[in-house]
Write a structure and sequence with these properties.
- The complex is a heterodimer of chains A (480) and B (1056).
- With 480 residues, chain A is mainly alpha-helical.
- Chain A is globular, with a radius of gyration of 26 Å.
- With 1056 residues, chain B is an alpha/beta fold.
- In chain B, the strands form 13 sheets. In chain B, strands 5-4-16-15-14-6-7 form a seven-stranded mixed sheet, sandwiched between helices. In chain B, strands 20-25-22-24-23-28 form a six-stranded mixed beta barrel.
- The longest helix of chain B has 19 residues.
- Chain B is globular, with a radius of gyration of 34 Å.
- The chains are: A mainly alpha (480), B alpha/beta (1056).
- Chains A and B meet through helix 2, helix 6 and helix 11 of A and helix 22, strand 33, helix 29, helix 30 and strand 37 of B.
Chain lengths: 480, 1056
C-alpha cells in the first residue's frame, strides 16, 4: 500500500457498486430489453386512460367553445394558462442539467440528465397544448406564425408577448429535442448492437443513424454537444423570461411587475428540479438504478431546490414590499386584499403557495432531510403543488379584482373539462415517459462511463497484489 | 439532296428496318386493358368513363365527408328594384311606440323591408329624440316567435285556426247577435289614439248598452281622480326643488322619457355659475329615481300619505291631525318644506301613490308652493294613463254576476296583472262571448273564445295623443308578418263599416290637418302639435272633488311599528310585463340591483339580519345562490329569492311585477320570476301597490340570481369614479382639474404634454382629421338603460340567457356600472348611487392592442379601437389586459355564426337556455342589423363606436363632397339617451358638442384611470350631488404623491 498512501480521497465515486463498463451497459439496457413488468403496464394504461380523457375534454371544448371552461368576462385565463406556465417551468430542469451543468463540468449530471431531458421535452409538449387549445378558434392557430400570405400580407403582431411565446417555446422545444436526441445516438447504437429480435435491430438501427463509435463520430458528437449546450444555456433563461413577459408587460396590478423575469426563471428551475426528483425517485426504484442515481444526486438536487426556493421566496417578499412601498393603490390592493387576505376568496391559494414554496423547502437546510428519500419525494410533490399555485395566484387573483370594482369578484372555479384537460396533459406526460423508459435507456450509458472510477479501482486492487509480490518476480514480469 | 443520308444512331444506319419496326411498337407493354376480354372499352367491367365517374364520385364523397356542413343561406335578389328603394340603404319612417298607455314618438330604421332599429323622434318637442329601454326593444317584439299567427277560436281546450277573416266576422257577428241584450264591454288598456277613440265610440253606438272600460295594470286612478279627471303636465325642467313621494319618474312613473329629459336640464352644470336642481326622494325602497336623488328618506309604503300630510302641514296647510313620524323623516320633511318655501313657484312635488286622498294632498301641496302654472303646466293634459280602477272592479263583479254578454279585450291582460286575477278568471267563464285582440297568447287570451290578433305597432296605422294637443302618428314599416288584422279594422268591420282602418285614419286626419299635404307632412315628421300649445297655460288649475281635510283625516296618524310591508314596483326593463317575452329586456340588468332574468324580493339589511341571512359574508357576494323566502299576502304565498340592498326602509320588501309569465306567452319569460300582482290590494277606491305581508322566519331554499355586477362599492377609487357634493365643488372647484394637472406635471415634467411625454414612445395617435370621441355626463345619467338596449339592437349583441349570465358570460358592449356610496360606518346609510356607463374607452394607447398576437385588434386612423373578427383567434389576452374590462368573448356559439359549432351542448357544462335558440330562429334573426356582422364563437368583441355609422355618414359626406359635421354621426347609445348624458362626435372639430363639452367642463372632466396612460377617447364629467355636505380632500400636494390623492374621509364602506 505504500504506493497508494498519497491517494487523495477527493470525493466518493458518483456511481456506486464498483461497476465495470460491461456491467453498466447491462444494468441500463436490462429494463429496455426485458419485457415490460406488470407495474409498467398498469402505469402505462392509467396514463393512457388519462390521456384519452384529456383528449375528450379538449374535443368537447373545441366542439362547443371555450364556454366549456368556467372562465368569464373578468377572468379570461385560469387553469389553462396556469397549467401552461407550470409545465413550461417544469421543462426547465432538463436543459439546465444537460446544458449548464455540462458547461460547468458537473460530472454528476450524467446520472440524471437523460431522464431530465426527456422530462423537459414531454413537459414542453404538455405546456404547448394549453396556449393552443385555449384559443377560441384553434383552427386558426396558424395565424400566429409569421409566414408570407395572401392576406395583405397580414403579419403577426411582433409587439405581443404571446407571439414571443410562440417563438420562445418552439425554439426551446426544437433545441431540447436535438440535444436529447444527439445524446441518445451512442446509446441507441449500443442497443442496436445488443439487439436480438429483428424489430429491435430495425428500430434501433434506424434511430441510431448509423453510429459506429468511430473516433470521428465521437469527436463530432462532443463538438455538437458543446454547441447545443451553448445554444440551450441562454434558452434556459430566456424561455421563462419571455413567459413572464406575458404578465410583466401588461397593465394589470399584480402582473405589471419588473421582478418577474428572474423570479420566473428561479421558479422554473425550482419546480423543474422538484419534478426531476419526483420522477427519478420512482424510476431508480422501479428500474433498479439506485447505484447510478444515488443519494448524492438527490442531495445535490435538493440543494438546488433550497437555493431556488429561497430566491423565489425573496422574490415574493420583494414583490409584496414593492406593492406597499410604491404606493400604487391598485397593486397594493391586489397583494393585500386579493392575495394576502386569507379570508378573501383566493387568499388560501396565496398562503398555500407561500407554505409550499417558501416555508417547506427550508427543511433542506438539514443534511439528514436532504438525504431522506421519503422527505425528498414528499417535498418534491409539495413544491410542484406550490408552484402550480404560484401561477394560479398570479393569473387568477390578479384578474378577478382589478381596476374597476364593477367587474370584480366574478368567482372562478374550473369545470370538469378544465380539470380534464390538465389531467390529460398528465396522461400525455406519463404516457410519453413510460414509453421512453421502456424503449430508451433512462441513463446516458456512454456518458456515465466517463465518470466511472473503475480503472482506478482495478489498479488499486492490482497494486495490492503487486506489492505483495517479491520485487524480483515483479521486475521479471515487467521485463518480459 | 436525296442522296443525303440522315441517321440518328448506328443501329438505324445499319439495320434500318428493325429500328423502324421497334419504333412502331414503341409501347412494348400491353396497355392495362386486361379486363376487356376483347369486348371493347365500353363493355369492360370498369370502363374508362366509369373510372372517371368513380373518381368523381369518390372525390365528391370525400369532399363532402371531410368538409364541415356549411348551412346554405338563401338570398334572393330583386329581379326589379322596388321603387324608391336602394338595397342596402336604410330608410327611416316616423312612427310611435305604443304600449299600455305609453306613447313615444320614434323613427324606425328599415333595411330592405325589415324594421331593425327604433330611434327617438327628434322633432318631438317633449322627448327631443329620447327613448326608453322598452321602446328600443320593441322592434324585437315584432319578430317574436310567440306571436299569434292567425285568428283562432276555442274548441274544447285547444284553439283552432279560423281560415279566413270572413268566417271569423260572420261567426262573431252571429255570436254578437245572440247576446240577447246582455251588454258588450270593450276592455282595453289606456287608449290615447284620437281616431281610435272616435272609432270606439262609433262601435259602441252600434251595440246599445255597451261600454268601454280602460284598465291599466299600473293604475293612476288616484292621481286622475285627485286632479279632476286629468293629469296635468309636469315640468321638471322648471323646478329648482323636486320632491318625489315614491314616484319613480325617471324610470317607470307616467312618462319617464319626457320627465328624464326635463329633469336632466336641471341637472346639467354650467361650471361658470354652478347650480342644479335639488331632488328629494321619499320612498320605501331604492328605486332608480331614488338612486339619482340628492337626498333620500325612507318610510313604509303605507306611510306615503302621512309623509304627504306632514309636508302639507309643514308648508302651512291646515286641517287634519298631526301625524307622527320617525325623527329622521320629520327632520327631512321640515328641510324639504323650507326649501320649497324658498323657491316659491319653482318647486314640484310628485307622488307615486294610487290613493286619491294622498294625491289630493299632493295636489294641495303643489297649490301651496305655487307650482300650478309654473312647474305644473295645467294647460296640457298627460294622456298616458286613463284607466279607472273602480270601473274595472265593477266590470269584474258584473262578469261574475253573469251580466256581461260579450267582452272584447285589447291591450289588457287582467288574468295576469289584475290584483284579483282569480276573480277575473272566474268571471270570464260567465261571459257569453270573449274575444282577445292581443298580439300574443297571454294569460287572458288563453281564456278567450276568439283570438283575433292585432298587428304589432310597426305593422299598423295609427296615432296617439300622449299629451293633449301633441299628436304622434304610426305608419306601417313592414307588411304584416302573419295573418293578423289591426284591432281598429276589426272593430270597424264589426260595427258594419266596411272601410279599413287606414282609410278611416286618413279621412280622420285629413280633416284635421288640412288635407293630404298636411297628413303627408305629419306622417313624415311623425309628430304634430296644435299651434301655440304648451306655451302658456290656458286652462285653470286642475280641480279636485276630494275635500282636502277629509283626505288628511284619512291618513293614519299613529306610526306603524310592526309587520313587514310589500311594495310592488316596475323594473325599468320589464315594466308591467307586456313586453316580458322580450329577450333583450329579460337580459337587461336592473339599474339598481344589476340582476337580470328574475324578479326577487329587495330587502333591507335589517330585514336580512332578522331572516338570519349572512349578507356580510363574502360568499354571499361571490356566489349567485341567494336565499329564498316565503312571502304571503292576500292569502297568496310566493317563494322569492332575496337581494339585500342598502337604502331600503327596514320593513319593506320590494318586488318587481311583470315576471312569471305563462309558457304560452313566452318560453324565455316563463322560466323566470314569479307573478306578484296579486299582492296588491283594493283600498275601496283604487288599487294600492302595497300590502302587509308575512314572511317565513328564515330562508327556505336557495335560488341563483344572475347579476352582472356583484361588487357594490367603488372602494374609494377616485380615478375610476369622481363624485362629490355641490358644497365641495363650490369650495374646491378645481379639485379634479388640479389632480389632472398634477398628474401631467409628474409624468410630463418637461413639456407638460402627458400624451407625448407620458410614455417612452411618444404620442401614439397624432393624426389630424377625424377623431371620434365621447363624453358622458355622470350627472345626467339616470341609469335608464335605453342605451344598453340600443347598443344590443344596433350591434347584434347576442342574448346569452340566464345560464350564461350566471357564469358571467354576458355580452353587453355597453354596461351601466352602479356604485353605492354610503356612510363608512353604516353601509345602509346610502348617500348616493353613481351610474357610470362603461364601454370600450377606445384608448389611444390601448393595452389590448399591443398584446394581441395576431393584430386582430388595432387602432384606426380615426381613433377607434377596432376588432377584426375574422382575424381573432380568441386568446382573450386583450380582455385580460383591458383595465376597463369591457371586452366580451363568445364563450359559445350564441349566434349560429360559427360553422364549427352548434348552439351549446345538450347536457353538461354550457347548456344554453331556450332563449338563445329562440334568438336564432329564422324569424327572430330578421331583427339583425345587416351592417354589423354576427360574431362566431371563440371571437372577442366589444364596442366599436358604431363604426358602421361613422362609415355611413362619412360616405354620405364624401358623395356630397363636403366636410363631415362634428356632430353628424351619433352612436346608438348617444342617440337613445333621453337625458343627453352621452354625446358623441369628432373631437378634433372644435365646434362639435364633444369638444365643446370637454372645453367648457374642465373642472369636472376626467378620464377613467388616466394615470395608466391609456389615453381614452371617452371622457366623463364628475357627478355632483346637490347637498351641503363638505367632503374634505386630503393630499392636494403636487407631484407623484397626488397621483394617489385620495378623498380619504370620503371612502365609502364596502357594502354588500
Amino acid at each position: 500500500m505504500a504506493l497508494l498512501k498519497y491517494e487523495s480521497q477527493v470525493r466518493a465515486p458518483l456511481v456506486e457498486g464498483n461497476k465495470d463498463y460491461h456491467q453498466v451497459t447491462e444494468d441500463i439496457c436490462r429494463p429496455v430489453e426485458a419485457s415490460p413488468s406488470k407495474l409498467w403496464w398498469i402505469g402505462f394504461l392509467v396514463s393512457f386512460a388519462l390521456l384519452v380523457f384529456g383528449i375528450w375534454s379538449v374535443t368537447r371544448e373545441v366542439i362547443y367553445g371555450t364556454g366549456q371552461w368556467n372562465l368569464n368576462k373578468t377572468v379570461g385565463w385560469g387553469w389553462d394558462i396556469t397549467n401552461f406556465v407550470w409545465w413550461v417551468g417544469i421543462g426547465h430542469a432538463g436543459t439546465l442539467i444537460s446544458a449548464i451543468l455540462l458547461l460547468f463540468r458537473q460530472g454528476w449530471r450524467t446520472g440524471v440528465n437523460r431522464a431530465a431531458e426527456a422530462m423537459t421535452i414531454f413537459a414542453v409538449m404538455c405546456a404547448g397544448q394549453f396556449p393552443i387549445w385555449h384559443m377560441g378558434r384553434v383552427w386558426n392557430a396558424f395565424f400566429t406564425l409569421p409566414y408570407p400570405n395572401t392576406r395583405g400580407p397580414l403579419w403577426v403582431n411582433f409587439n405581443s408577448p404571446l407571439l414571443w411565446d410562440v417563438f420562445a417555446i418552439s425554439t426551446y422545444f426544437t433545441v431540447s429535442l436535438l440535444f436529447w436526441y444527439s445524446g441518445l445516438l451512442p446509446d441507441l447504437a449500443t442497443l442496436r448492437d445488443r439487439a436480438r429480435e429483428k424489430w429491435r435491430k430495425m428500430f434501433y438501427g434506424i434511430t441510431a443513424f448509423g453510429w459506429t463509435g468511430s473516433t470521428k463520430h465521437w469527436q463530432r458528437h462532443e463538438a455538437l454537444s458543446l454547441v447545443l449546450a451553448g445554444l440551450s444555456t441562454p434558452l434556459v433563461l430566456s424561455v421563462h423570461t419571455i413567459v413572464s413577459f406575458d404578465f410583466a408587460t401588461s397593465v394589470i396590478p399584480g402582473w405589471h411587475t419588473t421582478i418577474f423575469p428572474p423570479y420566473f426563471v428561479a421558479g422554473a428551475i425550482f419546480s423543474g428540479f422538484a419534478m426531476v426528483q419526483t420522477l427519478l425517485l420512482v424510476t431508480r426504484k422501479v428500474l433498479g438504478l439506485e447505484e447510478y442515481i444515488t443519494i448524492e444526486h438527490i442531495e445535490v438536487m435538493n440543494k438546488v431546490i433550497i437555493l431556488t426556493g429561497s430566491i423565489v421566496g425573496i422574490a415574493y417578499l420583494t414583490e409584496l414590499f414593492m406593492a406597499w412601498y410604491s404606493h400604487v393603490e391598485y397593486e397594493w390592493f391586489a397583494f393585500k386584499e386579493n392575495r394576502a387576505n386569507l379570508s378573501s376568496p383566493y387568499g388560501w391559494s396565496y398562503w398555500l403557495m407561500m407554505g409550499c414554496n417558501v416555508v417547506s423547502p427550508q427543511i433542506f437546510w438539514f443534511k439528514k432531510m436532504r438525504r431522506s428519500i421519503i422527505v425528498t419525494f414528499f417535498m418534491s410533490i409539495l413544491v410542484n403543488i406550490g408552484m402550480w399555485f404560484e401561477r394560479f395566484v398570479i393569473i387568477v387573483t390578479s384578474l378577478y379584482r382589478d381596476y374597476l370594482p364593477s367587474s370584480w369578484s366574478t368567482y372562478y372555479s374550473p369545470t370538469i373539462w378544465e380539470v380534464g384537460f390538465y389531467m390529460g396533459t398528465f396522461g400525455l406526460f406519463f404516457t410519453c415517459y413510460f414509453l421512453f423508459a421502456k424503449f430508451f435507456p433512462v441513463i446516458a450509458i456512454a456518458e456515465i462511463k466517463h465518470i466511472l472510477k473503475k480503472s482506478g479501482e482495478n489498479y488499486k486492487q492490482k497494486m495490492d497484489v503487486v506489492e505483495r509480490e517479491p520485487v524480483e518476480e515483479f521486475a521479471h514480469a515487467v521485463a518480459h | 439532296m436525296s442522296d443525303n443520308k440522315f441517321w440518328q444512331s448506328f443501329a438505324e444506319l445499319h439495320d434500318k428496318e428493325r429500328v423502324q419496326k421497334t419504333a412502331q411498337n414503341e409501347f412494348q407493354e400491353d396497355l392495362p386493358f386486361g379486363e376487356l376480354d376483347g369486348k371493347g372499352v365500353l363493355d369492360a367491367k370498369t370502363p374508362r368513363r366509369d373510372f372517371l365517374k368513380y373518381l368523381g364520385f369518390s372525390t365528391a364523397a370525400a369532399t363532402l365527408a371531410a368538409s364541415c356542413k356549411t348551412p346554405v343561406r338563401k338570398a334572393i335578389p330583386f329581379v326589379n328594384r322596388p321603387e324608391n328603394t336602394v338595397p342596402g340603404v336604410a330608410k327611416y319612417y316616423a312612427s310611435t311606440y305604443v304600449q299600455d298607455g305609453d306613447a313615444l314618438p320614434v323613427v324606425v330604421k328599415v333595411r330592405d323591408g325589415r324594421p331593425i332599429k327604433i330611434e327617438g323622434n327628434e322633432l318631438c318637442s317633449f322627448t327631443k329624440g329620447g327613448t326608453s329601454a322598452r321602446a328600443q326593444a320593441s322592434v324585437l317584439d315584432l319578430y317574436d316567435t310567440f306571436r299569434l299567427p292567425h285568428p283562432k277560436r276555442r274548441s274544447g281546450n285547444a284553439f283552432q285556426e279560423i281560415p279566413t277573416f270572413e268566417q271569423l266576422d260572420s261567426q262573431v257577428s252571429q255570436a254578437l247577435a245572440g247576446l240577447g241584450g246582455a251588454p258588450l264591454v270593450l276592455l282595453t288598456g289606456t287608449v290615447n289614439s284620437p281616431s281610435t277613440r272616435q272609432l270606439i265610440t262609433e262601435f259602441l253606438a252600434k251595440y246599445p248598452g255597451s261600454r268601454h272600460v280602460q284598465y291599466d295594470a299600473d293604475s293612476y286612478s288616484g292621481l286622475i281622480a285627485a286632479n279632476g279627471g286629468r293629469i296635468p303636465a309636469y315640468q321638471f325642467d322648471r323646478a329648482k326643488v323636486i320632491v318625489s313621494l315614491g314616484a319613480d319618474f325617471l324610470g317607470t312613473w307616467l312618462a319617464p322619457v319626457e320627465f328624464a329629459y326635463q329633469y336632466a336640464m336641471g341637472r346639467k352644470i354650467d361650471e361658470r355659475a354652478p347650480s342644479m336642481s335639488k331632488h328629494y326622494q321619499f320612498e320605501s325602497f331604492l328605486s332608480m329615481t331614488g338612486a339619482s336623488a340628492d337626498e333620500r328618506f325612507t318610510h313604509r309604503p303605507s306611510e306615503t300619505g302621512k309623509v304627504a300630510a306632514a309636508l302639507y302641514s309643514a308648508l302651512g296647510g291646515g286641517g287634519g291631525t298631526a301625524v307622527q313620524l320617525d325623527a329622521d323623516l320629520a327632520k327631512g320633511i321640515q328641510k324639504v318644506a323650507s326649501d320649497l318655501k324658498k323657491v316659491q313657484g319653482a318647486g314640484l312635488v310628485v307622488c307615486g301613490s294610487n290613493d286619491p286622498n294622498v294625491q289630493a294632498i299632493v295636489q294641495a301641496i303643489n297649490g301651496l308652493i305655487g307650482a300650478n302654472g309654473t312647474t305644473i303646466n295645467t294647460g296640457v293634459t298627460l294622456n298616458y294613463r286613463q284607466g279607472n280602477d273602480a270601473d274595472m272592479v265593477n266590470l269584474v263583479s258584473q262578469m261574475n254576476a253573469g251580466q256581461i254578454g260579450a267582452l272584447l279585450i285589447y291591450g289588457a291582460n287582467p288574468a295576469y296583472d289584475y290584483f284579483d286575477a282569480a276573480r277575473f278568471k272566474a268571471g270570464m267563464q260567465k261571459v257569453k262571448l270573449t274575444v282577445s285582440f292581443n298580439e300574443k297568447l297571454d294569460e287572458t287570451a288563453e281564456l278567450c273564445q276568439y283570438l283575433v290578433p292585432s298587428h304589432h305597432y310597426l305593422e299598423s296605422w295609427g296615432d296617439a295623443e300622449p299629451r293633449s294637443g301633441y299628436y304622434s302618428f304610426i305608419q306601417p314599416t313592414i307588411f304584416p308578418l302573419f295573418k293578423t288584422r289591426q284591432f281598429q279594422t276589426t272593430l270597424l268591420k264589426w260595427s258594419g263599416n266596411n272601410t279599413d282602418y287606414e282609410t278611416y285614419f286618413r279621412t280622420f286626419w285629413m280633416g284635421r290637418l288640412g288635407g293630404q299635404q298636411g297628413l303627408d307632412k305629419a306622417l313624415r315628421d311623425g309628430v304634430s302639435e296644435v299651434a301655440g300649445i304648451g306655451t302658456s297655460p290656458t286652462q285653470p288649475a286642475t280641480t279636485t272633488s276630494i275635500n282636502i281635510s277629509d283626505a288628511l283625516l284619512k291618513m293614519p296618524a299613529a306610526p306603524k311599528r310592526t309587520g313587514a310591508e310589500v311594495v310592488l314596483y316596475q323594473s325599468v326593463a320589464i315594466g308591467t310585463g307586456k313586453q316580458a317575452g322580450n329577450p333583450w329586456l329579460l337580459e337587461l340588468p336592473d339599474p339598481v340591483t344589476r340582476a337580470s332574468w328574475d324578479n326577487y324580493a329587495m330587502i333591507s339589511m335589517k330585514k336580512a339580519d332578522e331572516l338570519g341571512i349572512d349578507y356580510k359574508d363574502s360568499d354571499f357576494e361571490y356566489y349567485p345562490d341567494k336565499p329564498v323566502i316565503e312571502i304571503t299576502a292576500n292569502g297568496i304565498t310566493r317563494k322569492l329569492p332575496v337581494m339585500v340592498v342598502p337604502g331600503m326602509n327596514a320593513d319593506t320588501i320590494a318586488i318587481a311585477v311583470g315576471y312569471g309569465r305563462s309558457p304560452k306567452f313566452s318560453k324565455a319569460a316563463s322560466e323566470v320570476g314569479q307573478n306578484v300582482y296579486q299582492f296588491a290590494k283594493w283600498n275601496g277606491a283604487t288599487v294600492d301597490q302595497f300590502n302587509d305581508v308575512t314572511t317565513s322566519a328564515k330562508s327556505v331554499d336557495t335560488h341563483k340570481i344572475a347579476q352582472m355586477q356583484i361588487h357594490n362599492s367603488y372602494e374609494g377609487r377616485t380615478e375610476v369614479v369622481k363624485e362629490t357634493t355641490m358644497a365641495t365643488f363650490l369650495k374646491t372647484p378645481d379639485q379634479y382639474k388640479q389632480w389632472r394637472q398634477d398628474l401631467h406635471k409628474t409624468y410630463a415634467p418637461k413639456t407638460g404634454d402627458y400624451r407625448e411625454e407620458g410614455t417612452l414612445y411618444g404620442d401614439p395617435h397624432k393624426k389630424p382629421g377625424l377623431k371620434w370621441g365621447m363624453s358622458i355626463d355622470l350627472n345626467s345619467c339616470t341609469g335608464c338603460h335605453a342605451c344598453v338596449v340600443a347598443c344590443h339592437a344596433e350591434n347584434n349583441v347576442p342574448v346569452v340567457g340566464k345560464n350564461e349570465v350566471l357564469r358571467y358570460h354576458d355580452m353587453h358592449w355597453l354596461r351601466i356600472d352602479r356604485y353605492f356610496v354610503s356612510e363608512p360606518s353604516n353601509p345602509d346609510q346610502l348617500k348616493t348611487v353613481v351610474f357610470q356607463p362603461m364601454l370600450c374607452q377606445h384608448c389611444d394607447n390601448a393595452p389590448c392592442e399591443n398584446v394581441c398576437p395576431v393584430a386582430a385588434t388595432m387602432h384606426s386612423a380615426e381613433g377607434i379601437n377596432q376588432m377584426a373578427y375574422n382575424r381573432c383567434i380568441g386568446t382573450r389576452y386583450c380582455a385580460n389586459n383591458c383595465p376597463y374590462k369591457v371586452r366580451r368573448f363568445n364563450w359559445g356559439d350564441y349566434t349560429g355564426a360559427s360553422t364549427h359549432g352548434r348552439l351549446g351542448p345538450e347536457s353538461g357544462v354550457g347548456v344554453l337556455n331556450e332563449v338563445v335558440h329562440q334568438m336564432n330562429d329564422e324569424l327572430t334573426r330578421m331583427v339583425l342589423n345587416p351592417d354589423v356582422v354576427t360574431r362566431s364563437r371563440g371571437v372577442m368583441e366589444k364596442c366599436s363606436f358604431c363604426v358602421q355609422r361613422t362609415q355611413e355618414k362619412k360616405l354620405e359626406a364624401k358623395k356630397e363632397n363636403r366636410m363631415l359635421g362634428g356632430d353628424e354621426v351619433q352612436t346608438a347609445c348617444s342617440q337613445a339617451c333621453p337625458t343627453k348624458a352621452i354625446t358623441f362626435g369628432n373631437a378634433n372639430d372644435n365646434n362639435s358638442t364633444v369638444s365643446q363639452i370637454r372645453k367648457n367642463n374642465q373642472q369636472r372632466l376626467f378620464y377613467v384611470l388616466e394615470q395608466i396612460h391609456t389615453l381614452p377617447n371617452v371622457s366623463y364629467l364628475a357627478k355632483i350631488r346637490n347637498t351641503e355636505e363638505l367632503i374634505a380632500s386630503k393630499n392636494t400636494g403636487s407631484g407623484a404623491e397626488s397621483e394617489h390623492a385620495r378623498e380619504t374621509q370620503h371612502e365609502p364602506a364596502k357594502t354588500h
